């Protein structure tokens, strides 16, 4: 009933920028935390950034000062602006959100399908 769809990944040179988008759709009553995770080959999935509906944020130390998370509540969309990209940022980036649908009176955690970000010259 709820889907998260990411877009905006691709190939970029070191030092470049990308903006990822993730739109939640379906029978949505409320969204709490929205965030981005990433998983590089052979590594565990890790939190990149999270943004609560209160406005508070969490960032991985490795991206602080380079990445910015934001959201448009009217569009149920979260963004990740990535600047000064490094080869070590190469990974599949996954959107994650805690969503309450009209069908269930509690929050459920959802994942997007992932979008590839490759930083290489």
In total, the number of strands is 11
Percentage of residues in DSSP E strands: over 45%
Low-confidence stretches: none
Shape: elongated
- Biggest β-sheet description: 7 strands, mixed
Provide the structure class: mainly beta
* Global mean pLDDT: 97
Question: Helical proportion?
Answer: under 10%
Roughly how many Å apart are the termini? 40 Å
Question: Helical element count?
Answer: 0
> Over all CA atoms, what is the radius of gyration?
14 Å
N-to-C SSE series?
EEEEEEEEEEE
Describe the structure.
By secondary structure, the protein is an all-beta fold. 0% of the residues lie in helices and 59% in strands. The chain has strands at residues 2-7, 10-12, 18-26, 28-39, 46-51, 57-59, 67-72, 77-82, 91-101, 108-111, 115-119. The protein is elongated and about 45 Å long.
Summarize, please:
This protein is mainly beta and 121 residues long. Helix content is 0%, strand content 59%.
Keywords:
single chain, 121 residues, mainly beta, seven-stranded mixed β-sheet, four-stranded antiparallel β-sheet, 11 strands, 0% helix, 59% strand
Task: List the topology elements.
Blueprint: E1 2-7, E2 10-12, E3 18-26, E4 28-39, E5 46-51, E6 57-59, E7 67-72, E8 77-82, E9 91-101, E10 108-111, E11 115-119
Parallel strand pairs: 2-11
Antiparallel strand pairs: 1-3, 3-8, 4-5, 4-9, 5-6, 7-8, 9-10, 9-11
């Amino acid at each position: 009933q709820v889907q998260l769809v990411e877009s905006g990944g691709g190939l970029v040179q070191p030092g470049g920028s990308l903006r990822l988008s993730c739109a939640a759709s379906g029978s949505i009553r409320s969204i709490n935390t929205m965030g981005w995770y990433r998983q590089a080959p052979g590594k565990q999935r890790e939190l990149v950034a999270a943004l609560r509906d209160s406005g508070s944020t969490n960032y991985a130390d490795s991206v602080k000062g380079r990445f910015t998370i934001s959201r448009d509540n009217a569009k149920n969309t979260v963004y990740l602006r990535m600047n000064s990209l490094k080869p070590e940022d190469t990974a599949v980036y996954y959107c994650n959100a805690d969503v309450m649908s009209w069908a269930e009176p509690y929050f459920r955690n959802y994942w997007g399908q992932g979008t590839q970000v490759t930083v290489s010259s």
